[in-house]
Design brief:
The structure holds two protein chains of two kinds.
Chain A: H1 2-5, E1 18-23, E2 30-38, E3 41-50, H2 53-65, H3 71-75, H4 79-86, H5 92-117
Antiparallel strand pairs in A: 1-2, 2-3
Helix pairs in contact in A: 2-5
Chain B: H1 4-8, H2 12-17, E1 22-23, H3 34-47, H4 57-76, E2 85-88, H5 91-101, E3 111-115, H6 124-127, E4 135-139, H7 149-155, E5 160-166, H8 178-187, E6 191-195, H9 207-210, E7 214-218, E8 229-233, H10 235-240, E9 251-254, E10 259-261, H11 275-291, H12 293-314, E11 319-322, E12 333-338, H13 363-372, E13 375-376, E14 378-380, H14 385-391, E15 396-400, H15 407-424
Parallel strand pairs in B: 1-13, 3-4, 3-5, 5-6, 6-7
Antiparallel strand pairs in B: 2-8, 7-8, 9-10, 11-12, 12-15, 14-15
Helix pairs in contact in B: 3-11, 4-11, 12-15, 13-15
The chains are: A alpha+beta, B alpha/beta.
Bound molecules: pyridoxal-5'-phosphate.
Chain lengths: 119, 426
């Protein structure tokens, strides 16, 4: 509830290394995640979103969690463990809301790595 | 007046849910009375066999039950001739049937006129015809959420071959004057289709009086089982149109290189039909007729009037609702939001100042809390995304009433809404 009322990391990372917009077609929830990367680690992550309390709070928690995390670790965040770590029980349809931010982050990292490879 | 508490006793599911549970998702599907469930059980226990096939008595029993259901439905919507009733799976299939059959005659630059409040099932099947260059046009709404009849007149042209319109909206509850629209469509030489999915279950509907060319509805929204629906069509049109699906039941004779088709309506009912579904629907029609459709409409009108009054009295902070305030043209559907959450504009995302955090409470949070308070409502776009876009909202929550709902259900809705705002309001 705290993360819902006062979300952390709301906004856009300046000069972001990668940016992704993830969209849930069922409910229209939208999240944009931007990250900055330094030395193979996520040095900053921010989000902007429209959606239910679960999807927005999850984005707030996730962006807190991944700051300083190596890219490879962030890429492999386990969905089940992540949901457990949120500390609330969710039905299957609400799990999708919680995972919206995780999917966005993973896509964001993939995009970044693709960009690096082609450099 | 209906006595909803008495009616509730006819529905086994309310025994399970208990007296303090408010089922307010009737626009999605209705609950089923014992009589409907029993009729279907009885079919399998006593009369099960295929229809139109056997010479033996058991098969004749099944055929009789199936055809009797057709007559019941025909009477119910005053179709005058039961051959004008085609059994399909649901409204969606009925409109797809029309898109396929009527669509064959359309050509490039022909137009189909629908409205911005349509359900996806009265949009997407027509969009299929864009491959042939057929264009889809939308009638817009007045500020009071009724159809803009001037816009309809403007968009109705010599190219308009089909006019297809929902008699009652599943989001706004707007009841449109389909008799009048039918007259306008026919004067223009257009075929007139009525999506009656939300009207036949809730008010008297007279297909002959409306003078609809086609009219579609679903059994499951009117106390019947899922998997059975109805396409009413004028006999001459059904007779003239090509068939939809091919196979058994729909043929007269099959040769190696061609077939001749059965008469209407069998021509449109390929394969073994949903016999127990038709039996269940027949029983549902009996139940509704015993109540009287005038009474059903009066009851729901009372509930929506009471809802709008509660809305004004309760003054829930930031509560916004959608749909006509004039209950003469409003069904028992109540869509609302607590604060309006507009969709994220991708262009605004480019710069930080462009996007503020929304102050609104998301409809998913609203419906989850309502569920905790034993109020079942649906949240989302309600299969009408163009309408959500028109209203500029990501989603809405919807309460929709039926014969077993009471003013207490409405009270419970508003009592829990106050709690929602306390919990989620920023
Ligand atoms: C206005 C309207 N048209 C069509 C449909 C589609 O009905 P079905 O899903 O039974 O085909 C619905 C059901 O939600 C509806 O409300």
């Amino acid at each position: 509830m705290d993360h819902y009322r006062n979300p952390h990391n709301y906004g856009i990372v300046q000069n972001a290394a990668s940016k992704i917009i993830e969209y849930n077609p069922v409910c229209g929830d939208t999240i944009q995640i931007t990250i900055r990367v330094e030395n193979g680690k996520i040095s900053d992550a921010k989000f902007i979103g429209r959606g239910c309390s679960i999807s927005q709070a999850s984005a707030s928690i996730l962006t807190d969690m991944v700051k300083g995390m190596p890219l490879e670790e962030a890429k492999n965040i386990d969905e089940d463990k992540y949901i457990k770590s949120l500390g609330i029980t969710l039905g299957p349809s609400r799990e999708k809301c919680a995972l919206l931010a995780v999917n966005a982050l993973k896509k964001c990292i993939k995009d970044y790595q693709k960009g690096e490879e082609s450099k | 007046m209906l006595s909803p508490l008495q009616i509730k006793k006819d529905f086994p599911i309310f025994e399970r849910l208990g007296p303090d549970y408010s089922y307010l998702d009737n626009a999605a599907t209705s609950q089923k009375p014992y009589s409907v469930i029993r009729a279907m059980e009885e079919f399998y226990e006593l009369h099960n066999s295929n229809v139109h096939r056997g010479i033996y008595r058991l098969s004749e029993e099944a055929t009789n039950l199936y055809e009797k259901s057709r007559e019941k439905v025909s009477d119910f919507i005053n179709s005058k001739d039961s051959r004008q009733i085609v059994f399909v799976r649901n409204t969606t299939e009925a409109i797809n049937l029309l898109s396929y059959t009527l669509g064959r005659e359309l050509k490039k630059d022909d137009e189909i006129l629908i409205t911005i409040l349509e359900h996806h099932s009265n949009i997407v099947p027509w969009q299929f015809l864009s491959e042939k260059g057929v264009k889809l046009r939308y009638v817009m709404l007045n500020p009071d959420m009724t159809l803009d009849m001037d816009d309809l007149q403007r968009k109705l042209t010599k190219k308009t071959r089909i006019v297809s319109i929902a008699q009652s909206s599943n989001v706004l509850g707007t009841i449109s004057d389909v008799k009048e629209i039918g007259k306008i469509a026919h004067e223009n030489g257009s075929t007139f289709v009525v999506d009656a999915a939300q009207s036949v279950p809730h008010m008297p509907v007279d297909a002959t009086d409306i003078d609809a060319d086609f009219l579609a509805f679903s059994g499951h929204k009117m106390l019947g089982p899922t998997g059975i629906g109805v396409l009413y069509g004028k006999y001459d049109l059904l007779d003239r149109m090509p068939p939809f699906m091919g196979g058994g039941e729909m043929i007269s004779a099959v040769y190696q290189d061609h077939s001749t088709y059965a008469d209407v309506p069998q021509k449109y009912e390929a394969g073994t039909p949903n016999i127990e579904g038709a039996v269940g629907l027949s029983s549902a029609v009996d139940y509704l007729r015993a109540l009287g459709m005038d009474q059903v409409r009066e009851h729901e009108k009372d509930l929506i009037e009471y809802t709008l009054k509660k809305e004004e009295e309760h003054n829930v902070p930031d509560l916004i609702s959608y749909g006509p305030r004039n209950t003469e043209v409003r069904s028992g559907v109540y869509c609302f939001n607590i604060g309006e959450m507009s969709p994220l504009n991708i262009n605004d995302l480019a710069h930080e100042e462009g996007v503020q955090m929304s102050q609104a409470i998301h409809p998913h949070d609203v419906s989850e809390m309502l569920d905790d308070g034993n109020v079942a409502v649906r949240s989302g776009h309600h299969c009408a995304m163009p309408l959500a876009e028109f209203l500029n909202v990501v989603a809405t929550s919807r309460a929709s009433y039926y014969i077993y709902n009471t003013r207490e259900d409405v009270d419970r809705l508003f009592n829990v809404l106050v709690k929602v705002v306390k919990k989620y309001g920023r």
